[in-house]
Specification:
six-stranded mixed sheet, 39% strand, 1527 residues, 10% helix, mainly beta
Amino acid sequence: MPFKVSPWYKKKLVSQVQTDYAYHHTAKQVSQKTTVRKSVSHKQKSPEPQASEAMAQPAYTVPAFRERSQDDSTPEYQRVSANVGKGLAVIQQELHRMRMVTKAQVDNIAIQKEVKEKMSKRSELLDDIGKMPDFLVALRPHTVWEKTPVKLFCTVQGNPRPIVKWYKGGVPVDPLSAPGKYKIENKYGVHSLIISRCVVSDTAEYSAVATNQHGTTTSKATVTVKRASGSGEPCHLGLVPHLSEIHPSKLEVSLLDCFPVSFGVEGGTISLACSMVIVPDLPNVPPLVQWYRDDKLLKPGKLVEMFVGGGVARLVLPSLAKDDEGLYTVRIFAKDGTVDHSAYLFVSDAAPTTAGAPGAPMSVKAYDVNADFVLVAWKPPNTVNEAPITGYFVDRCESGSDTWVQCNDSPVKVCKYPVHGLNLGHSYHFRVRAVNSAGISRPSRKSDKITAIDPIENERLQVVKIPGKSDIVIKDDDLEGYVTVPGEPTELHVSEVFRSYVVLSWTPPKPRGRAPLWYVIEKCFAGTEAWQRINTAVKISSPRYPVFDLAEGQKYQFRVYSVNMYGSSEASLPTEPVQKVDMDGVPSAPGQVTATRNTKSSVFVQWDSPKHLKNLMGYYIDGRVVGSKEWFPCNHKPFKHNRFVVHGLVPGETYVFRVQAVNVFGLSEESQESGPITVEPALSTPSAPFGITMLSCDGSSMTLAWNSPRHCGGSKVNAYYIDKRDADTLAWKEVNLQAVTERVCKVENLTEGTFYEFKITAGNLAGVGIPSAPSAPMKCEAWTMDTPGPAYDLSFSEVRGNSLVLLWKAPVYIGASPVTGYIVEMAKKGSKDFVALNEEAVSHRYFQVSGLEEGQSYVFKVRAVNSSGIGKASLVSEPVCAKALPGTREIEVGVDEETGDIFLSLEACEISETSKFIWSKNYSPVGECPRVSMSSKGRTSRLTFTNPDKDDLGRYSVVVTDTDGVSASHTLTEDALNTMLELSYAIRHPVVPLKHGLNYEILEKGHVRFWLQAVKLSSAVSYRFIVNDKEVTSGEGHKISHDAATGVIQMIVENFTRANEGTYTVQIHDGKAKAQSSLVLVGDVFKAALKEAEFQRKEFIRKQGPHFSEYLSFTVTEDCTVLLQCKVANVKKETAFHWYKEDDEIVPEAPPNVMSGACALPIPNFSRKDQGVYKAVLGDDKGKDTSVIDISGQVFDDIINALAQVAGASASDLVLQCTPEGIRLQCYMKYYTEEMKTVWKHKESKIASSEKMRIGGTAEMAWMQICDPSDKEKGQYSIEISDGVQTHTRTFDLSGQAYTDAYDEYLRLKAAAFAEKNRGRVVGGLPDVVTIMEQKSLSLTCTVWGDPTPEVTWFKNEQEVACTEHTKVTFDGGKFASLVINKVTPEDSGKYSINVRNKYGGEFVEITVSVYRHGEQLPEPRVGQAKPTSTPAATPASTPVPPSKTPTPTPSKPQTPAPSVKSPTPAPSMRSPTPASTPASTPAPKSPTPTPKSPTPTPKSPTPTPSRGVKSPTPPRFMKSPTPPRK
């Protein structure tokens, strides 16, 4: 890469300047003559830089003559010595020196003449092209110390040549007005203004205005003069640019490898480095190096690290952000001036934390810093494929802390935000996050540190300097007098107006008062005087304040008070009415976008400015590959200029571009897309060829070869021109007037023994390039050696990370015998130690080198071998780096799906407009060959074999010309070829692909369908069915058809009989494709098909009358009812439906409704008794049908499991119930039967039913009773209900307090039961009502029982009856009690009762007696008299229960259905009819579950007369607490 040295005092003429941000391109039309080349000295137009260099540097170098060997020089020396003597050698040396001096002088004169001619031709050419002025090198700002000089210079071009005038602050600079002060120069197109001995007053903006007849352009720069500390007044620097320190250096610096255009990602690290050669190289005195970003000097810090030493200048950016994107320039101060290099750095967005979130904002800066207020501004990110940005969040962090605090509650929509509420004297950093509909971006890089201070404090200080004494500092407060209350603020106005907020600004009051000052702000609707205070919660110390809570569409006025501890000022004048609106909005869209070629991986894009700039920040450029819908950002930081070079593009790809303008409100609309542009280098003349070598010489001619130019100039090199000269002369002579197209040329008409030099010039469509450097002198002497000459044209192919292929051409001079092979030698770049890679010579002219180090560079040379030995080595090749090109792909081999052709294909990773694909076999170009054909489309090339066979085996390679070495190879082996030949045959001789082969299915009516399905059928398909070697056509008994859409071909046999046994075949023809499928239908397979057909035929007949469309099946409902159900069809109202079990008809409560289409038979409380064969019969005058289901075996088990599934899911938790017999655990469920798979467990051990552990259940629950419990029965109990798939488990922990309470309750119930069993009671014999005629005798007799024998007492009207003659009371044998009334009278009528009682309790029974006179009508018995009531002795209450006719209420029914079967508890004997119930005094326990009925039923009385005594309330069946509460 060439670099220009630019001294401060002298500049060379430069014809063209191109940077990554400003690019100037002049198109020059060149008329290419390929037939005859005109004289180089008269017609070849060299670029102007060449002319400049020719003036500054000698164009001729004394050739380094080849040292002759001893064998050649000795005979001549002896002859000269014999004739002339020893002194002749000295004379020859002097003559040679004089001749060379003369040649140099003549050569210089010729060069000067040639330069003058070319300069005049250049002027004539430029005079014809009009162009407005354009600054190639713009003015650069400077900061200098006082009394030092400064030089402003610029380079401008235009046609006619512009006139440059200098201005200071808009006033022309006149050197005559201040002699010696200013000096204006113009040398070689470099215009300069020198200001000697600068003073502070020279601080100003200087401008250079260039003018010609085509227009005017201006370049501006600021000069700031800085005064040393203590030397006078401070100088206001304003926008201070970098200080250009001028360090005279005696070092000579030349740059070698410099940093290219680079790409980084946010958060990453990147290093920009330049290697250089320093003369003299003093380790302790490195050159002065400065780094710039976008023309701004960089200083070392945490985010920028700089290193100089070891011949390298390096800049490291350790934590990249989009703020770091820009044009980086390294400037090195050298002896002759400065050496510069620039390249662009792109920094892309890091991956978002949320998909679709925008990129981070950038360039966060704080302005207008006050005591508690600061204005934060930033630049918006580019949004390409993301949703638009809806706002921003601003965060602040105190310096030294990592805690970030969000400043705004809702996103602000503009790229500015006023932050208030800062603490005076505290330092802060700020950052910004963007928001869109997908989420929040990563935070921006934090801003520089700012400190909240009052900027007016310094202005209120006055310094009085007294010579020779101390300075006096006076505050404005001291000059205001003794004022306590501050004055009112002035100049109140709105400085910022946005839709999100407005910012009020004012001037602090004078006087301020002698106390700390703050402000109060009020607002009102415009036109009203309803003032309302705004800052009620905070004190405002700064003359700035943002107001947020303003209504849309309303206009407001504001006023401010100054307040301190002594009082408040008058209000300031109100502001003008202001409304919350966005004043400007986004810019308009940029104008026309134009893209032009630049390099092979970049494009130059320029555009017109928007019509409405609106405080433009810059532009974002987006790109898109033609044919794609996805846009990508070309830059990630707003770019200020109207032209931009887009880097990192794919060579040969086609793109379009668009531009968006950016300001504080966001991004404008997109511009119109540019025209498509293919990434190609800009068209220019080729560079110089190199590597001129001699391949053969016969004494009168030489055969020369050379290497192609490194840069073809964007067009194919189609011409070479050779010049020659004697080594002793300066004049060049043309060898060929006709262009040479090959890189080998035979130069004839040479003089034997003369040394010649040659130079080569290449040409393309743009013209003829610069000539090569002269070759080394070559002696024209016939070659007579026996060994071969050198191979030539070494090139590389298929360069990869660890291998490459070296190619060369055979030597022109073969020696005494034909060339038999080649030896390849290799060395690392910079080393001369070559190593032979092959011990035996290879016969072909290519060699694959492997085992390379990736990234290492190597050089090669080749020697030809014949029978005489090893010949001359070729020229050393160009260095090649073992590294594959980005995106490199290999050759793909395949078979065309349409034609069946076998092909090799390569998709190039880069391509240019002039590129061609060169295919080779064994590295020999294929060319036009009938065995293969080649085709290319875009970036892909294909080599297709016509009729491949074994002769086509070998190694195939392809090279893409005019690229950086895009190439690949593939070895075609015999196995691979055979595989592809089979695939090719299948494609060229296609078969109709079948999804399903020939198959059959039985249809209704017993028809049989034979069918197959193809993947695809065309409308022109033809086919035939062959059965037992006879073709079958569509007709009677057979229907043949197809459906092209589905690919189905079918034949339906309507009457399938034994005669249809055999082989069925279908043959298909669809275009060129064929297919055949067969089905053998014989033996058992045919019998099964025939049986099924007959069954379907019978089914069809059955379905003509009423029939079952779905046969009997079972289902279990949610209430555990088993339903036998079926569906019927083809029925009518008269159709009869009957249910049977074991041939016994079942008549359900609801008759079947056949018209509904479904019938069901419910079987409630299903159990083993319901096993059997069930049958449903359907019939009418059309026919009859029957469905049968056998509920036994597996079907019965399935029903039980279905019931268990519903019951298990509904099972309640285990509850505890105490009984007189023991402790019972109960589990309620929707239905329970003993056939269910139910297991009770105690401590994980299965419980078997026994006298100790009784297991049973009812239809509503399963229970397990522990009889006569003891401590051994403590522990965890569980019940497991299995439905065959799932096990439902319920548990209860019977231990601790739960067991204690349950055991106590058991003992209590056991005692109560014993008392109930033995209490006194009336067993039977007494009526309820007795009607008797007077004078008759009445005998009331009953049987009583009790243990011990009870006492019996009779009452009349609640008065005890004494035994008299009229009334006789007897009690015989402790069993029979009687009351006899002799000759009853009406006075004996009344209510009689008997009280039977012992120590356990008793019973109270009432009898109503009515006495009527003779002849009276028999009175009707009074109904509703009180019934006997029991009064247990164990009841704690002391008063007996009064008799009542109202029965004791039964406890409410629980949610779980009550049991409906008899309790398994044994009934008491007939002599002990005591019911198993709790005493009346025992209250029912409180429980969230309703109390069900007792599972233990009351036994029947031993006599026909039921007991009329009122029993005690039955206790609940379960309780949550084992011990019920007692009253």
